[in-house]
Every structure is written in C-alpha cells, then in structure tokens.
Amino acid sequence: MLVIATGRSQRHVGALADHITRRLKEAGVRDVRVEGLPTCDWVLVDAGDLIVHIFRPEVRGFYNIEKIWLPEPNAARA
C-alpha cells in the first residue's frame, strides 16, 4: 500500500513521521525504516508492505509523485 500525505511545515512532517513510526512499532511491525529526517521536506516511512511519503506542500508539488504512481484516468485496463 502506498500513502501520500502533506504536512503544513517541516515540524509537522517530522511529527507525522514520528507518530506513524511509533504506531507501526506498537502494532508489531518490526522493520520500519525512515528516510528524510531531520530536514523533513520529504520523509519516507518504509514498513515493507506499507510505504508512506510525507511532504511539505511545495515539495509535493515539485516532485508530483502522484503522476508516477497513480493510473491515468483514461488508461485502458487489461
């Protein structure tokens, strides 16, 4: 599963990443990796089957990863 989220500031992005990481560990997920700290412009939380991208608004707009990961609205389905 892929989750893309936006935090309002670097502090907010970091707090969201910390909260998600803590909750995953409480739920028994053992191998949680985090990248992007301490700058907190774009933080990636990798929990194996769950990947969470947390961006500041400007950074999310710049990288626009939704275009990479989401299917085209008119894409043909096999």
H/E element sequence: EHEEEHH
CATH topology: Beta Polymerase, domain 2
The geometry reads as flat
Number of strands: 4
- Average pLDDT rating: 92
Quote the beta fraction: 15-25%
Broad CATH class: Alpha Beta
Write up this protein:
This protein is α+β, with helices and mostly antiparallel strands and 78 residues long. The chain contains three helices and four strands. It has a single domain (2-66), classed as Beta Polymerase, domain 2 (2-Layer Sandwich), CATH 3.30.460.10. 37% of the residues lie in helices and 23% in strands. Strands 1-4-3-2 form a four-stranded mixed sheet. The longest helix is centred in the N-terminal third of the chain and has 17 residues, at 10-26. The two termini are 21 Å apart.
Task: Please describe the structure with a list of short key phrases separated by commas or semicolons.
single chain; 78 residues; alpha+beta; Beta Polymerase, domain 2; 3 helices; 23% strand; flat
Question: What is the strand and helix layout of this fold?
Answer:
Blueprint: E1 2-6, H1 10-26, E2 33-35, E3 42-46, E4 51-55, H2 57-63, H3 65-69
Parallel strand pairs: 1-4
Antiparallel strand pairs: 2-3, 3-4
